[in-house]
Amino acid sequence: MIKTLIKSTRLSWASKNFNAYLLALTYAYFSGTLITNPFEILEGLLLVSVFWGALYSLNDLTDLEVDKKDHTKRNRAFIENKIDEKWILIFSSFLIVAVFIISLTTLDPPFTIILGLMLLNQLIYTLPPVRLKDTPFAPFTSTATNSVLRIASCCVLLGNVLLVPVSVYFFMYMAGMATYVMYKSKQISASIVGVIAGVSLIYVLYTGEMNIIQFAVAILPSFLAAIPLYLSVYIDKEKMTQIADILYHQVAMVFFLIVILIILF
């Protein structure tokens, strides 16, 4: 049972958090911001990763019946192994409460506020009666909003939530939305949102609000992983999605962590 619960947290999906923290840290590095709290940054990264693990576990519980009908999700933890709902709720609630307690007692209040916004966004996305996941607003509240909040959680630990320019927040928002619609195999939406994300990327590079090194270390690995994800909209969805998953959630995650440690220490 414990093994199944841990699997439900999708540990490798912490790559999203590593990517967001790396992007924020590149802005601290190139702006000459002195990082005096490297261990707090790592603590924040760990807390956000554990927090999202708990939210993924809850998400799999609320989507269990729907996911059982989706062949591509046959390996989800609670589909492979049946667990009493109460244990999933206890497990997830314990992790969420523990993260909030540690955050409140060891980190600055704005970080905890960001965690609260993450929780609120996920609850209205997954739970009835709102459950935005089943509405046309789903792309605006899922990966898109969460990408912004992940970056902000690192920025507040660095002392300035606007350390990352608003234009870059917007680009990451659109990139997150593009990822979502690609995963949902929405061809027209994926192309439209992808173009908007591409134009916003060109803008931040052209204006100098993101330099080429930042692009190379924090954006390019994600972009390369997104190529098979985009192809999955048109061909062999399961295989292409699996390739994208390996590239981003495993290969890129190791790279992100190494660069984070180099910047911090």
TrEMBL record:
<keyword id="KW-0472">Membrane</keyword>
<dbReference type="Pfam" id="PF01040">
    <property type="entry name" value="UbiA"/>
</dbReference>
<feature type="transmembrane region" description="Helical">
    <location>
        <begin position="20"/>
        <end position="39"/>
    </location>
</feature>
<keyword id="KW-0808">Transferase</keyword>
<feature type="transmembrane region" description="Helical">
    <location>
        <begin position="111"/>
        <end position="130"/>
    </location>
</feature>
<feature type="transmembrane region" description="Helical">
    <location>
        <begin position="188"/>
        <end position="206"/>
    </location>
</feature>
<protein>
    <submittedName>
        <fullName>Prenyltransferase</fullName>
    </submittedName>
</protein>
<dbReference type="InterPro" id="IPR000537">
    <property type="entry name" value="UbiA_prenyltransferase"/>
</dbReference>
<keyword id="KW-0812">Transmembrane</keyword>
<dbReference type="GO" id="GO:0016765">
    <property type="term" value="F:transferase activity, transferring alkyl or aryl (other than methyl) groups"/>
</dbReference>
<keyword id="KW-1133">Transmembrane helix</keyword>
<feature type="transmembrane region" description="Helical">
    <location>
        <begin position="247"/>
        <end position="264"/>
    </location>
</feature>
<feature type="transmembrane region" description="Helical">
    <location>
        <begin position="87"/>
        <end position="105"/>
    </location>
</feature>
<feature type="transmembrane region" description="Helical">
    <location>
        <begin position="151"/>
        <end position="176"/>
    </location>
</feature>
<dbReference type="GO" id="GO:0005886">
    <property type="term" value="C:plasma membrane"/>
</dbReference>
<dbReference type="InterPro" id="IPR044878">
    <property type="entry name" value="UbiA_sf"/>
</dbReference>
<feature type="transmembrane region" description="Helical">
    <location>
        <begin position="213"/>
        <end position="235"/>
    </location>
</feature>
